[in-house]
Specification:
By secondary structure, the protein is α+β, with helices and mostly antiparallel strands. The protein is built from 5 helices and 8 strands; from the N terminus they run βββαβββααββαα. The relative contact order is 0.13.
Length: 195
């Protein structure tokens, strides 16, 4: 059993906590948050496992360029953990989510360019996610003015999966809708930061 309770999470949301794997600094262990763990959180944890299984069946190296590599599950002293790739900047620091960066520094030209590349990749891969918002995207600093964005949550929308696989026009329509929602969320962050 992996012991996490003596470690500090590097990220914590309303539903889950993320820890650096004690035996491998390049891996993340996600466990359910201790605050009122219930059926909905357990279902979401299971949904993420199903997301990984679905995306791995696509057997596409290009698809895995912008999602964490799944390394399995592990029993921890805080419950079942999902083990996946941990993204780090070139200086070794843990990469931060895009929402935090936009709130702190605005939408720099370099981040805007990285967003365009992420959106193009999503189109190329025909990847319809459940919730691609800035809070579910990590910005990996590759160089001083270069970023690579990766999606870490809500990886697959199975509700429309067969339609998007079968009909290119439907995939394009749904992806366009999803990416416009992403743009609205980025704009909302910018509006909040300027207040």
């Amino acid at each position: 059993m992996l012991s996490l309770s003596k470690h500090q999470p590097f990220a914590e949301g309303t539903k889950r906590r993320c820890y650096v794997h004690p035996d491998d600094p390049n891996l993340c262990v996600k466990v359910l948050s201790g605050r009122g763990v219930g059926g909905k959180q357990i279902a979401e944890q299971q949904l993420e496992l199903e997301d990984y299984a679905l995306l791995q069946r696509r057997n596409s190296p290009a698809l895995l360029e912008r999602i964490p590599r799944f390394k399995g599950t592990v029993d921890t002293d805080l419950g079942q953990g999902i083990v996946s790739q941990l993204f780090r900047d070139t200086d070794g620091q843990i990469s931060r989510n895009l929402g935090e960066l936009i709130r702190e520094q605005g939408l720099t030209p370099d981040l805007a360019k990285a967003i365009d590349k992420l959106k193009q990749w999503q189109h190329d891969q025909r990847l319809l996610t459940r919730d691609t918002g800035p809070h579910n995207v990590v910005a990996v600093r590759l160089a001083r003015n270069e970023w690579k964005l990766v999606i870490i949550e809500g990886l697959a929308n199975r509700r429309f999966a067969w339609l998007t696989r079968s009909f290119r026009w439907f995939a394009d329509y749904m992806l366009g809708r999803e990416l416009r929602k992403f743009d609205r969320r980025v704009q909302a962050l910018l509006d909040t930061a300027s207040d």
